[in-house]
Amino acid sequence: MTTFNYYVLERLAYPVYFFTVALLIWVLIVGKVMSGSQRWLSLGPISFQPSELAKIAIVLVLAKFFSERGGNREYRLRDLWLPFVLTAIPCFLILKEPDLGTALFLGMISISVVLIAKVYWKSLVIFVGSFFLATPLIWFGLKEYQQRRVLSFLSPDMDPLGAGYHVNQSKIAIGSGQFWGKGFLKGTQTRLHFLPEQHTDFAFSVLAEEWGLVGSAVLLLIYLFIILWGLNIAKSSKDRFGSIVAVGIVTIVFWQVVINVGMVTGLLPVVGIPLLLFSYGGSSLISTMAAMGILMNISMRRFMFQ
Amino acid sequence: MVRVRTRLLKPKWDKVKVLRTSNFDPVSSEVFGRQLKIAMIFVVIVFGILIMRLWFLQIVNGSAYRAKSEHNRIRLRDIAPFRGMILDRKGKVLVDNRPSYDLYVIPEEVQDRPQLLKRLSRFGGLDSEDAGRVLDKAARGYPFKPVCLKRGISRDALAKIETHRFDLPGVMIKVRPERQYFHEGLASHVLGYLGEINEDQLGGGQFRDTKSGDLIGKTGVERKWQTLLNGVRGGEQVEVDAVGRRIEVFSRRPPVSGANICLTIDKNLQILAEKALLGKHGAIVAMDPSNGEVLALASSPSYDSNLFIQGIDQKTWQNIVSSKDFPLQNRALTGQYPPGSVFKIVVALAGLEEGVISPEEEIFCNGTFSLGKGRYRCWKKYGHGKVNFHRALKESCDVYFYNVGRRLGVDKIAQYAKRLGLGKKTGINLDHEKSGLIPTSEWKLRRWGIPWQAGETISTSIGQSFVLTTPIQAAALISAVFNEGHMFTPQVTKWVRKTDGESLFEFSPRLAGKAGIRQENLNLVKNALIGVVNQPRGTGSKARIEGLIVAGKTGTAQVVALKKEKDSKPGSEIPWKFRDHAWFVAVAPADKPKIAVAVLIEHGGHGGSAAAPIAKELIKAYLHEKTEVGGQKSEVRKNAQRVTRNPQP
User: Fold this and answer.
1) Residues of B in contact with A67 (CB under 8 A)
2) What class has domain B334-482+518-642?
3) pLDDT in tens, A149-187
4) What are the residue ranges of CATH 3.40.710.10 in chain B?
5) Nearest CA in chain A to B53
6) Active site residues of B
7) Cβ-contact A27, A41 below 8 angstroms
8) In this predicted complex, what is the ipTM?
9) Between residues 56 and 75 of chain A, which touch chain B (CB distance below 8 Å)?
């Protein structure tokens, strides 16, 4: 990922984006169904989730958009219809899988990028205001069972027997780690299968149980370092495309960490978002490594004249 | 090194880069930089919150959580829903639930295993070797998960185990509602039975909310309404102590009871029908001709649905399955028998409709009918003499119908049989209904590769040769004749309602079709069938009831053509499996039928003597009860109305 000049990516932004959209449609048609959702595409022996690729694709097209329509201006809502459409298409397709968590996640990435690119404050007020106005209107327009469905989507831990139970067990696991932890492979919560999805969504709980506050805080600090480093790259990049790609990648990292750790510590509702670079999962690992590679690429080429 | 090489290979991009540098705008960069600074501060604050949260969990409450993790006793417990009740048409309970006590052990909490197993085998009659094996397997997988050692322990065992609770660490008792069929074996072919859900069904997705080990309806009404009967599983998140007692309930989702089902079956009539079949092989169907409600549906020999509840053991299952009596088979729907003389109803209607006979025409019966080399006999050895239509049907003269059949040809007979609902499923929607068989010349050629023989038409016209019907088809046939040719699909469900009263299904008659036969011809046949029961020399006189007009038709179906043997010996000396099947189909009252009955006794002998008395008992009991209980008033009122209306012009 560092061997080519990232300007290639600027040219490739739309092809990559449309390729991803095509994959997302393809996965809906032929994808493997796993626990009720159609998210996986198989390529011979390996299978991967196109929704992972969608995260990077969206960052690339947004960066392309903001670098072309850059300049010293603040964006108004009417300037932003294209990013909106570009985000909405993959979001909608992922929602059909159905994978609400990832769809919302894509939305958060693109909102974060837009915000950092600077939105005219009045537009922001209008946008946020109309959102808050529309929500109750839409809400009361829904039928009761639809409301219930939305609620359980947004906070599955309302179900005391499903996610609520998992969070309870996760909190016990993390808390019981105390300062130094129980030691590697000595976590009782883990060994006795009280923790669900130990190698994916709840991997952080296992770490916190076995390595205590020391281990989990160090991991968080590493993530913090990666994020700040990324933001610094964004700042020092010599062109706007590079900056915004860097911002987008940082956003991906940031929200994944916050949502996952927030979830396992009981601060946020349970949505199945794994912890990147740490949870088990090939698609996620590859896309994250790719994102890191791009980040380094931008960093390397930050000087105007080499 | 790598970088340099790439750049050499792709010099094109350097040009782009030069272009891009002009895009660099110091003002924009400054604004952007401020935005990034805000973002950095935001990120640091959020990470601060996360680390504070960790601090709170691991340091502030750390020791409490550590304690909890060491005695982690938070469990998820299922709460099984109540499966819906099944009621008869008058609301009497046929199937309900009773509490069953299941013995569970949590492997991790067992202290002295040999001791525990010894005690359990003494208190609860447990096989300690089997139990030990189950425990071993469970301990390797999920040592904290309770494993069931025995279902449905007796009350005695329960008392003993409860009193020794403190000597039995790790043991817990779970209460579970268990299916109870109140009357052993009653209507078991209609109700069906439960069985453990199998892998295919678990994966198939048509059973919502099921886990392995769940019992689901395998046959009958239990299967048909499985999803509605089942209800929705509840559960609770609880903290328990070392002996598995509940200390605290964190949260709870109550189960939702399954819907109740009311059948059209009349319990008393069903009991009577099964009593009549006791010790015999056969089937009885009783239905309301005016709407298709099935009042009784019995098949003998039968089985007890209760046997299946606790998981039937291999030996009992083998006994049931391999029995030559086929108790699991619902003969009323799946037994296909030659209809014998019952089929003359069809041939009679066909002959009249096609105009090949007139009611007045007399045919001479001397006891035999000749066609080519073949000689076909009448059941009455020396013949009926001169018979007209009415007498022929009433006295079931074979020779008369040989003539009618010959004039019609097999394909015309088949056409009418199909119009009257034979040769196809009635659509009752219970398990494995068979369609019977109505032969045509085309069918014969296709099935056997041989053309239809003229002689086969002759035996077809008295319901022999290839003709096969099921008892429920026979009941539907007689219903259609007395219901002006309207055929209703038989149904067994009156309503399905949730426990809060919300209705999920209500009975409504389903018209399966109209026979399309002229009223005057229907009347001729109806009169003759009334004659069968009520006039001298009628073959069904044993179904006669004082003060009630019953109409019916007998049938005596040959199993094998063993004329010589049968002629030479009295009935009781013929081996059982070669004896004739006895049929009787009946309706009452003939003018406004409320009940139609089909009785079939395998190898029962003559329909008039073996089957007709059973039909009589059923009709008598049903109509008698109906007029006595509640029905009387409305009858009186109806009559009163008729009287007051009549004087008016």
Assistant:
1) 23
2) alpha beta
3) 566 656 555 555 555 677 777 888 887 777 787 766 666
4) 334-482+518-642
5) A265
6) 341
7) yes
8) 0.82
9) 67, 70-72
